[in-house]
Write a structure and sequence with these properties.
The protein is α+β, with helices and mostly antiparallel strands and 557 residues long. The chain contains 17 helices and 18 strands.
Length: 557
């Protein structure tokens, strides 16, 4: 069996020479004693076959002692593989051997779990006789900052890439292990305090199963604290437990079963961080170590940074969902209210029209002009109320994606003339005659009722803001397009208001002087776009407005 031996200096068999004194300790190692970088000298250990199998320490300066957490008198004469077995596992020992055998320097950034902490060193190993001089610098803080920056960037991207916050948090919890610890529990609640997500992750399947069992046990105790694994810890402040000892567990657990499970889990170190946003606690992030690693203040600070990002993302998604739900509830209210209003307004209009027809036909007892005026006024207002109800219904249908089109062959020219004829009385009352200009039929495949609604909305808008001047309506065709142009000579629209003119509930003038809900142009744009067309406007204050609708002759829906 090969035996280990330290490399010794060979002695030539010549005649005795003058004996030279060995260099003093200060002479040999003085250059490194006060150096801020760590320095170690090691000599090769070879077996009988002259294979280099280990290195024994000859010297370590005070900086090296501090960085390694080992004193020189403890390491002297002992092997690197013996005290730092990770050097073999990580391939560092093989690099040391290569440096001795080839004389080529070995330069690297290496990781060691020293003194229960992650430590990174920049290492330079130089051949020294049949051994090495090893210089190293602690770069743990830099490597840690690089890791934290990279992890937080990945977490932020993951949390903002989608509104599916549950899937993002599931993936994030998985990435926390083993980067941030050996185990992770991530609990998130919704705005009503109901569980939204509960993730348990561990490096080993058996530990993950134990974590799940701990949470189930805590839930059975009705603790309502699954994110804190049932421990007697504040749920709204961060907690750092560097060393989780049995006496500490006894003081934190709820019963014997809880203590038994936590001891089986084998937690060495633990930290908990609340997820807080806008003064509310939305859940908790719990990290565990089951091995040598011990959490410290830097780990807690980083976990709090991560928790802030998680809480902000969750809060934003919850706000979005609440807003979407509020919009859905509002639209549902509009739909119900519009349907409820439509029945009495339709009945009112039918009864008024019946009275008007009867009054106009009556020759035996002619009605007074005052009665006719009142009936006509009631009829106009009933029509206006009915139009407003229909607008509300249309908006809710559009928002819910329920705007259905019934396509058929339609002559836009004929339709525009029919609508203009129906506006004869309102145009006369507004002292804004409608001047129709056409160049022949403009036939296409469209929804007749919806297209009629577009012409009606644009003419109604032109008469409202036309300032008693003529309104021009023109229909023309061009290749595969039909074009509808409605122009008034009224008050016009300021340029800064044009971009928002087709928005919901938007208006370019004061609602004190002009009525309406601000929905007509919004509905017009939605219908035109549903038919595959476009609608635009050109205007300037005092110069009127020109609305142009372009429709493909064959609607693309």
């Amino acid at each position: 069996m090969p035996t280990l031996r330290a490399a010794t200096k060979s002695v030539r068999p010549e005649a005795p020479e003058e004996v030279t004194a060995e260099p003093s300790y200060e002479e040999q190692w003085g250059f490194a004693t006060d150096h801020p970088d760590g320095y170690m000298a090691v000599r090769a250990v070879r077996n009988d076959a002259s294979e280099l199998v280990d290195f024994h320490w000859e010297y370590a300066n005070p900086a090296a002692e501090a960085m390694m957490g080992m004193r020189l008198d403890f390491v002297m004469g002992r092997g690197i593989v013996e005290l730092l077995p990770d050097t073999r596992n990580r391939g560092i020992h093989a690099c040391f051997v290569r440096a001795v055998e080839t004389g080529e320097p070995y330069v690297d950034e290496v990781y060691f779990p020293l003194a229960h902490n992650e430590r990174w060193f920049r290492l330079v190993a130089l051949k020294r006789g049949d051994g090495l001089s090893i210089w190293f610098t602690d770069i743990t803080r830099r490597k840690r900052e690089e890791l934290e920056t990279s992890f937080l960037a990945e977490a932020s991207h993951l949390l903002t890439a989608s509104l599916d916050v549950e899937a993002a948090l599931h993936e994030l919890a998985r990435r926390c292990v083993p980067t941030l610890g050996d185990g992770c529990v991530l609990q998130v609640m919704d705005s009503r305090g109901q569980p939204l997500l509960l993730e348990t992750v561990a490096r080993e399947p058996s530990q993950e199963a134990l974590l799940t069992e701990v949470l189930q046990h805590a839930a059975a105790l009705a603790l309502n604290e699954p994110g804190l694994v049932g421990l007697r810890l504040p749920h709204d402040t961060s907690q750092l437990l560097p060393e989780v000892t049995t006496p500490l567990l006894q003081s934190l657990t709820r019963d014997a079963g809880h203590l038994r499970l936590m001891r089986m889990l084998g937690t060495r170190s633990l930290l908990t961080v609340p997820l807080r946003a806008r003064g509310r606690t939305l859940g908790a992030l719990v990290l565990f170590t089951f091995r040598e690693r011990v959490y410290g203040p830097d780990d807690l600070r980083f976990a709090e940074d991560l928790a802030d990002r998680i809480a902000l993302s969750v809060d934003n998604v919850l706000l979005f969902r609440e807003a979407r739900q509020a919009v859905a509830q509002r639209d549902e209210f509009f739909t119900v209210a519009a349907h409820e209003l439509r029945t009495p307004t339709t009945s009112l209009k039918l009864n008024v029209q019946s009275l008007l027809r009867g009054t106009r036909r009556s020759e035996a007892a002619p009605s007074s002009p005052a009665l006719m005026t009142k009936l006509e006024n009631i009829d106009r207002n009933a029509s206006r109320l009915n139009a407003l109800v229909n607008e509300l219904l249309d908006v809710t249908r559009i928002h819910a994606g329920r705007l259905r089109l019934e396509l058929e062959e339609v002559d836009l020219t004929a339709l525009a003339q029919e609508v203009a004829a129906r506006f004869e009385l309102p145009a006369s009352q507004a002292q804004s005659p409608i001047l129709v200009e056409t160049s022949g039929p403009a036939v296409g495949t469209w929804d007749r009722l919806r297209l009629e609604q577009v012409v009606t909305n644009l003419l109604s808008n032109a008469l409202k803001y036309g300032a008693g001047k003529p309104v021009h309506l023109r229909v023309e065709t061009n290749a595969g397009l039909a074009r509808l142009v409605v122009r008034d000579e009224g008050i016009g629209i300021a340029s800064e208001n044009l971009p928002r003119l087709f928005g919901r509930f938007e208006r370019a003038v004061s609602d004190r002087h002009y009525g309406g809900l601000g929905l007509g142009l919004y509905i017009t744009r939605q219908i035109v776009e549903a038919l595959g067309g476009t609608v635009g406007v050109r205007s300037a204050p005092g110069a009127g407005a020109t609305f142009t609708v372009e429709l493909p002759r064959q609607a693309t829906t």
